[in-house]
Predict the 3D structure of the following.
Amino acid sequence: MSSKNLQGLIYRSALTSSLVPILMIELALVLLYFGINAYISEHNKQTLFTEVSQHLRDVTRREVNTINTQLQEVSRYAAILQRDHEKFFATPDSCYLPNGTPRFAVHRNGAYYKTNNNGGASLYYSASTPIGTVEKKKALCSEKLDDILISVVQTSPIITQAYLNTWDNMVRIYPFLDNAPEQFGPALNLTAFNFYYQADARHNPQRLPVWTGVYLDPAGQGWMISNVVPIYRGDFLEGVSGVDVTLDVFVKQILDLQLPWNAQAFMVEENGSILAIPAELAELLGLPPLKTQGAPLADTAVLAQRGEYNLLSNQELPIDAALKELFLNRADLAELTIAGTPYLVSQEIVPATGWRLLTLVDKSAIFTPIYALDALSKRIGIGAIVAMLFFYAAFFLYLQHKSSRLAARIAEPIENLSKLTGGLGAAFESAPPGTVGIREIDRLSNNFSNMTQELGKRTKDLVALELREKIKEKEAEILETLALTDRLTGLANRHKLDEVLEDELARFRRFGMPFGVILLDLDHFKEVNDTHGHQVGDQFLKETAELLANKTRQTDTTGRWGGEEFLIVCPKTDHDGLLEMAENLRQALQAHHSSPVGHKTASFGLALSQPDDKVRDIISRADKALYLAKSRGRNRVEFGQPLPPGPNPQPTNQP
């Protein structure tokens, strides 16, 4: 803890005793002000959020009802087509031409088609269908259907086109297509498209109007959906009639909503595919622009399945799991984050089709009034803080002046005495201070001089005594270390190992904690000394000792047992653990390369503590195991077995 200047201490105490209470009161008032504002703001946010959530649900539900009504109206038009077209196939001999006689021809690509626009529908026959008398009659007499096709398209504001597709790949479609053969291509298999097969007997056994998924229109109207109905003659499916609604119509007529808080809406199928979405929202979700131009018919089935327009399968959309969870759980409200921005989303399901209308609103737009009020409150609070700081600055200058004068008056006499005693620790032998003519101070100076001389003498004596004690302690420590350490390897010596073994054996007897020993002997070590000399041999023993010390546990004691033999005492181990450790050491020694010796191996003898063991018993078992390892070819690990009752044989060393 650092010392403090007396004058500064008096000065700071005077300042703090005056400033701190006022500062704490003002700080409490500021915190109370901001705390109340934060509470009111949060309460207002919760209230507004509840109101907005309910209003958003109401708006979405109202729009869904409107959409559902329009879709039901489209389904009714499709049902009208169904009745009219089934009546046509029920009376095949009836042939009425409401718009005059049409002209037909074979296109250069082989398709049979209607060449003149007489105010009715287009007619196309695939080149894959042989055109005979029956086909030509059907093409001609189906002109009778144009009135109802024209009426449906012109009556409904959202229906783009109406058509009949037959089993033999004939298409009658209104409005008229100027070049149907090039638009549809030479060969067209209508039964392969969703606007045909979704109405067949397998997909629609009830023969009711059904809505298709999104597809790219072969007639060039872009991405659209269809409401299709089967046309039966008895139980034979003559074809499928339908009406189309383009996605552009949904965007312009259904999703062009004037929603509060700049909310945006988009329509999604039950499988997650997007039906209609405003461009701004599509960009927010990271979707590519919707393709609205025609494409070759061979590509339409692939284009209709593109995963980037699916909320569930497109893993790259910058939305979190909350939107998918909302979608799958059919919930009506959720909060989610898109590209780091929090949104509130409402969902309503269109009963007619199962589609979902989702409405998104940026939460920051909802809370804009609250944020403005918060900003005003903060400005007021900051203004109050600034005014308070100016007040405290002036008050601080006044108190500083008063406190400084008070501190100087109290501390100056004590400061003079402090200067006299400042060098006491370093100037025990300094000359006594001169007299100043003041009896009390002269007496104090003389006493101070006598005291410093006495302190100096006693300090020297104490330092000398402490130095002698430290030298004795260090000598004892060095002697103890030399007595327990092998001088060559730095490991524990035989004496130290005996102490450790006795301690471990006592612990085993008292607590039942088993321990093991590993006795290892370097194989053919005599050759090292004979070939390279004892200095190289000693260096190799040092390297071996260092390797063993690094490869054993901190709780193990590694020592030199004698010559090229090493002993490792392993507390708290069992048979498998001791065997694994010895095998690891054997492999490490075998892999170690020493210059100029090269690679050397070692043989290992292992033993575990047994009840009634003495130190010589466990060492004897380890030595016998070492002998066994030597006799079996060296460079191996053997485990010593418990000794039989009776006198134990003496250990035998094997080079």
